[in-house]
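Page 42, continued from yesterday. The earlier attempt failed because a stray header line got pasted into the input along with the sequence. Redoing it now with the clean sequence only.
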Amino acid sequence: MPQRYIIDYIEFPSSDGQATRRFFGEAFGWSFTSYGPDYAGIDTAGIDGGIDAGAGRTKAPLAVIRTEDLERAEREVVAAGGVITTPAYDFPGGRRFHFREPGGVELAVWIEKA
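This time it went through. Structure tokens are written below.
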């Protein structure tokens, strides 16, 4: 059975997380949940998202794809020519890895914590 892949999250990198939250709040009325000094979840943008001000943040917005089987997704990404840029790691909501597709776009795939 084919595995289902859905883009359901987007992360915005920021060199100043507070300024980015202020801007999105004032410009679009979005609200946020703080997950520490370097990360905030976006609550009201129509798609789940976050603002990443951490040192290891990506350079461009990051689309995050949800799956049901992370190991299988990683095998399929590599078999299709993707390059793993960040090996799978745990985070508060689950587990994910990052990859670059052959055209150069970096994306992530995640699985919800059981």
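Notes: The chain has a mean pLDDT of 94.
Reminder to self: strip header lines before submitting.
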